[in-house]
Amino acid sequence: MRKRGDMTRHITTRELPISERPYEKCLQAGPQTLSDAELLAVILKTGSPQMNAVQLAQQILRAGTKSLLNLYQMSVEELMQFPGIGEVKAIQLKCVAELSRRIAQTEQKERVCLSNAQSVAAYYMERMRHERTECLMVSMFDIKCRLIADTVIATGTVRAVLSSPREIFLRALEKKAVTIILLHNHPSGDPTPSKEDFALTERVQRCGELMDIPLSDHIIIGDRRYYSFREHKKILV
What we know:
Layout: E1 2-4, E2 7-9, H1 22-29, H2 36-44, H3 53-62, H4 70-73, H5 76-79, H6 87-109, H7 117-128, E3 134-141, E4 147-156, H8 159-162, H9 166-174, E5 179-185, H10 195-211, E6 215-221, E7 226-228
Helix pairs in contact: 2-3, 6-7
């Protein structure tokens, strides 16, 4: 802190030594040399009357998970609780988190193989493992086993579609899918299937046989873990 008469104020980012300013460090040595807090400070641009952008970034990182995962897991409203974070900055931070998720997913897309549950789980892992509630998706493939589309069917619980898989196959028909894979997450981080998961899988599999759009797998996403019904021979294709 510096003093002017009886007043105290924080050191702004511009008053830091050049070697400690995030923008200058990035220009001179590249973004890979910046700490998590410095990278976040570049996005924030400014701090608050009580702290500069780097200090504000450090405060965000010390909350919750004590890591960058806070950007995924905190809501706009929760981010706005930090001094210096208004609605615009909170939305920008959430968009940065979503961009990072999509970049990670884009890198994995070319590796997705219909018959390889690990490749499918890897593609959806970052997208689904941070969700706080269950989210059921259908992933659709063409005749050459290429991923052509995916869509969210329900959120909250798989019970929402347990009584009728109608929505799943409507989406598959719209995209002219030849085969499908179901995916959903377990917010607890444990991908062990429940009895409802088994019931949904069986029902969708039976409907798929009638529709001539077979269910190739049902993958449950946990925290860096997954369960594949196909790998455990609960689905035979």
